[in-house]
């Protein structure tokens, strides 16, 4: 073979190798680019996944959601509970975020949370046992108000009319909705034949924080129902032991609330009512007469005492069919832990001081001394 031919063959082979190298390089480059694209897409997806998981479930939704954290719950259980109740987007991300923040020691209990809460707000709430947010405004519902009086407060503090709120909380549809939400609180007793309004006395008096400018009427009412649920919960065991119901407690406590003055001793008044009930003596408490009349009067007249109504404790023995107002904490406590006495009568003098008597004669003497 000629030298020229050998050189040409070698040259051709070198050209072929260069071509192969170029092709291999292109293939490697293509593979690398594909891998980078895949990694980039995966990384972007992972970034979006984590970012979304760190956001509130729904920043615009402030409706309260009742969530129960059982005693002994670990972070896995708590995270899953929050996800199941649509409070957070992803249980895993919440769990790792808690660990990253070196948080823990959450408190068991019943919480009212919202989908608009951030992860930090949820963590703070679970640590302290309360909702940790700055409210847009607060609304105070005083003790001893009836549903129509509460409606007036709502009208003064929100853009809802008293008429609309009262219509809501006395409607069959809302009462049934409340029963579904609070089945241990709203029982068959509220549907008793002589009960005037099913939810009378069930909207707890307290100062409520709200986290939006115009909360719905349902949001407001459910917050107050949750307040009652929370405040009767400590008494459930002893109520069961005494074979008494929550309805009984709210009814009895509402009488104490309406009879109360700034200086009154609710526990002693409770003992008077108990003593009367034990001997089948009518309670004869004026606030029940006013509730029967459906009027707010400064003074009860003798003719008013004879009004034929199930709520009038002058003509009917025992407790009225249901609460006559919203009792506060002090009245609930007095109903559950009354004083021990032999008193059957009491009256409040113009300064608000109560004077108790065991006999009718002593009571009449107190009337002569303090009211005439």
UniProtKB/TrEMBL annotation:
Top-level taxon in the UniProt lineage: Bacteria
Keyword entries, A-Z: Cell membrane, Cell wall biogenesis/degradation, Lyase, Membrane, Transmembrane, Transmembrane helix
Parts of the chain that traverse the membrane: 23-47
One cellular component term from this protein's GO annotations in UniProt: plasma membrane
Keyword Zinc tagged: no
Chemical reaction(s) catalysed: a peptidoglycan chain = a peptidoglycan chain with N-acetyl-1,6-anhydromuramyl-[peptide] at the reducing end + a peptidoglycan chain with N-acetylglucosamine at the non-reducing end
EC numbers on record: 4.2.2.29
Keyword Electron transport carried by entry: no
Major subcellular site: membrane
Subcellular location per the Swiss-Prot or TrEMBL entry: Cell membrane
Membrane topology qualifier: Single-pass membrane protein
Classification via CDD domains: MltG_like
Site feature: Important for catalytic activity: 259
GO biological process: cell wall organization; peptidoglycan biosynthetic process
Any one Pfam family match given in the protein's UniProt record, by short name: YceG
GO molecular function, a single term: lytic endotransglycosylase activity
Biological function: Functions as a peptidoglycan terminase that cleaves nascent peptidoglycan strands endolytically to terminate their elongation.
HAMAP family per the UniProt record, alphabetical: MltG
Protein name per UniProt: Endolytic murein transglycosylase
Organism: Chryseomicrobium excrementi
This protein's encoding gene: mltG
